[in-house]
Write a structure and sequence with these properties.
Lambda Exonuclease, Chain A
Amino acid sequence: MFAGLHGASAADAVTFAGHEFEVEAAARQAPTPPPPHAQWQPRIDAARTNTRTSAAVSASGLEGTEPDVALDATHDPGLAKGARDLDLPPWSKGRYGSAIGRAVHAVLQTVDLATSARLDQAVAGHEQLVRQLAESGLASDIVKNATARQHWRETYVGTVQADGAVLEGYVDLVYREDDGALVIVDYKTDAVPSGAIASRVTYYKPQMDAYRTALAAATDARVSTMLLFLNPAGSATVHV
């Protein structure tokens, strides 16, 4: 507790906890008065606007299946949620679908892409389905193309956007073409008929655009993006 506070000379003594300290006059200056309201309000409004902007954005959160994603004006944002699960097979719905997707991604991040070695060890839980989905990716032309070239899996990418927010994410597979261009491959485990793939690509385009932007900014290379839809009946590759 303060035992006392004395005077207001240029070098007054302040007693605190039984000890006396000298206090410079500058330390006792009156507080600066607030600015006029006309100056203060715009600064407050600007601060509120800035705090509504996310400091970092995940590329995977930009996919159209997220409820809060703003799609192109020609599309209905309401289509990005809920109803997509109604007619899908059980293994691709809700948390079950998410678990299957994570399992397949984990397999394709660890097995030998060229020989499928360690596939049996990598598959755990829902073995048959996870194996079939992973095998459809391993058998795809684009994965075979990647194995013959320099490639990276589960690669972090990030960049700072014009508004100052950090855009970041992890890319499933990146490989370098013979001409030096980079190709991003993103695995998807959506259960959709071939006729519906084009509309599904619309939802994933913001995510793929974000990956392309981040990787191009980091490497100065020409970057293309591919979606690889996995299915027990065979995969489908789509350029985005």
